[in-house]
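Re: weekly structure request thread

Next one in the queue (240 aa):
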Amino acid sequence: MRDLPLRERLEWLLREHQALHDPAVEPRNALPWLPELRRWQSRRLEASFDRFLRDPQRRPAAQFFLTDVYNERDFTQRDADIARVLPMMQRLLPASLQETVADAIELGLLTHALDLRMAQVLEVMAGARPRLDAPLYARAYRLAGLPRLRAYQIDLIARVGLGLSHALGLPGVAMLLRLSRTPARAAGLSQLQGFLERGFEAFDRLGDARDFIAEIEQDEREISHRLFAGDPDPFDAAMG
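Done, posted below.
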């Protein structure tokens, strides 16, 4: 799918995103365990990002990851904005930034698909149990399986971070974002504009993003490896 021309890739991703989030098409969206799973994963990520959040230079980038890249937030409106302005994006935005936007949509699509799979597993194995904890999460993660897709999910996390860091540092992008702020708001595209502006501000303060992204990638790969290996404390006691 990454071999498709960029416009076709974006169009395909947006169609798949819409279908996967539509309860009429994908009834697993109504599973009671899905909101609890997403809340728990959000808290786990915040715990894993604690050292970044306590570092004034890295805090904005960490918060951007937690709110805009890899968390429980619903990105449906942002991606609908992208669908509406796709032709304009291709005229105005650098190709590298368009690729990064596509990677961000793919990350959200894959993450939601994996969450639906885990929620379905939890529905069977946990039943009426009201809350998720680390041991139950680890069992569901292993039963849901798909280690290659989990590895690819982490690939996309790193790709989005590095792509934004690179693309938002290109000459003229900062000016383009400033000039597009008012038209974007008037056109109802504030979600997309906000995503790009928050990314620009976060990575501008961070400086060289490579070490920051490499640490996130290493942490997430280690946690995934421990989960699949049945480690009794895959999160280093970060979660209860």
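The chain has one domain: 6-229. Residues 6-229 form one domain.
Next request, please.
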